[in-house]
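Chapter summary example.
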Amino acid sequence: MPDTAPSNAPSPGSPVSASLGGAVRSMSLVTLLSRLFGLIRDLVIVRLFGDSAVGSAFAAAFAIPNMFRRLLGEGALSAAFIPEYARAVEAEERGSGRNGIGGESDGLATLVVAALGVVTVAVTLAVEGLLLGLLLFTGPDTTQRLSITLIMAMLPFMPLVCVTAILAGMLQVRGRMGLSMTGPIFLNTFVVIVGGWRLMQGRIGEPSTAYLLAAVTVVSGLTQAVTFAWALRRNTRWVRVGSAAWRSAVPAAKRAFKRFVPVVIGTGTLQLNAFLDMLIAMWPIWIGVTVLGVAYPLDERSNAILAFTTRLYQFPLGVFGIAVATAAFPMLARTASDGARFVETLRRGIRLSLYIGLPASAGLFLVRTDLVGLLFGQWGSGGGSGGGGGGG
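The structure predicted for these 392 residues follows.
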């Protein structure tokens, strides 16, 4: 980027650069651990379900609450909430020296978490009702029915993980970057333990295994939310509705929700594209094997194959790219009124992204065939044909 910072901009060795670099390192290490567990989770799931219809149905059921998480939790609402929360914490730290506890920041956190909880629970209940109605039009032993019931079993994960994402943003503003990224470790650990147990039992390719993993996913979401709320106990006091802290936070909450609308349009477009990708892959299960009488080119295995291979490029993205963005965003929010620090933080974030992202892209391209063959070359015995996994 061209040098547009004021002449008094902090040097590369300044506390801002050191702070961002340290935060990225901390978050990258935790995220690397999480992604390694996630890779093990995927290897367990691929050996449980393979490229089968059950694998496709489980992948779709897992993806739907996570789309809401990216949209409401880690996406638009976090982008709108974190700057306001960081501003309130910064003002309280300067004014009272009480580590930013009390007053507007607590009221804002309580208001946003409560509103998010109410909205996501209402959406969950509405979607559950809609899916329950759809079950009336499906056969008793069809893959379509399996997919619908798996989605219903997995949906309660959505409000839990959305609230967890907001709590993680609060931890990041408080400087607890590494802890804020540990949420997926709970999920991956639970799934690996239970999935590994089912593997040892030989319960491969069974719908009952998919339902059990769905239940474990919901339990992991509850565990994440409780753990993060407990970790914030020294920094946050949840306030009563109508209290002075609640009323003082209303203007900030209005600004956050006003910013939410344009941000949700952008992130919503991304999530809509992801949903359409899944719809294309799930068409044989959700709709049928033909389109206006013409044979559909994909089959019931397609969504499982798409989900497993997507994980490969998400690994470096999640370990490095997301770590840089997640570490930089609260710092950008807190330095918004200081042009020099804001520009330096932005520059360093972009440099770190390029230095890591370009070599990772080249590396994935060079090892693509061997990587797919090593990880997914032999599906579990519950899967369909082996051609879906070994093709690379």
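To summarize the output: The mean pLDDT is 81.
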